[in-house]
Amino acid sequence: MDLRSFDLHEADLTEANLQGTDLRGADLRGADLRGANLSGANMSGVNLSGAHLRWADLRNARLCYADLTRADLSHADLRGAFLEGMHLLNGHFDGANFSGADLSNVDLSKTNLHTAKLAGAIFGTEHLPDEPRPPAKERKSERDATLVYPAA
């Protein structure tokens, strides 16, 4: 489905099946996506500020440079998602699963990830959160050094 650049702000998309949907550039500010299936969706550049994504399935989704300021992703499944450059300021991520997700160039300094699952997540070195993390292995990429957290 192609929903590129659609205005869906404050839309009720609770438990919607949007698997593989192209949402690039869409406006989903304040949208209700609780329990929605967004696996494999392309959401690059999407505005999701203040959106509700509790329990959403975002496995292997592309959210590069998306704005998730004040969004609620509690218990969301983000395994294997591409999240490079996302804006996560003041977001809620209690119980979210970031296993294997690419969080390169994501500023996590004002984000609470205490109960989030981060095993195998990839972080760029320039914006790591201040909380202590398990030892990471450094892996060189073409762009910069990357930290890979071991699987639990």
From TrEMBL:
Report the superkingdom from the record: Bacteria
Basic and acidic residues bias spans: 127-145
SUPFAM superfamilies with a match to the protein in the record: Pentapeptide repeat-like
Looking up InterPro entries in the UniProt record yields: 5peptide_repeat, Pentapeptide-BTB/POZ_domain
Q: Which residues cross the membrane?
A: none
Which residues does the annotated region (Disordered) include?
Answer: 125-152
Protein name (Swiss-Prot/TrEMBL):
Pentapeptide repeat-containing protein
Annotated source species: Dictyobacter kobayashii
